């Protein structure tokens, strides 16, 4: 089999390029009738539909929250809020093992949020607030639902009702890491 060489391909300057037109899509000297207008309308609506379909999969992973796996039910042995933050992060990782990003995160993330969570003495989530919401608006409700569905958290028996803050690092594919347990970022 003979492979053509690159010298057989004409240079870009020798290939004729048709001029770019910005006018109506009809032959010169001819008016656009009903059929032409209807065809242009179908093309325009088809492009709009294609745009909607292309945009839909980008955020589909944030439309629903996966069910959380049940926790162990064991109380936390944390003696401080910082120690409880680690227990809470481990609980979230155990609740959503398929959504946890394994390894180092890529340099660009879809959403970064600073989340403050209130937990009562029994481990129930009483409030979820965003100290810094993510730039992608679809990520905030997704994070909030994941936290609420993961309840009950390990009960903070030694410190009582507590409040902890963690940073959620969310990839566009719907996987996450928490700053408390992150493996770093490239």
TrEMBL record:
Domain of life according to the entry: Bacteria
Protein name: Energy transducer TonB
Native organism taxonomy: Bacteria, Pseudomonadati, Pseudomonadota, Betaproteobacteria, Burkholderiales
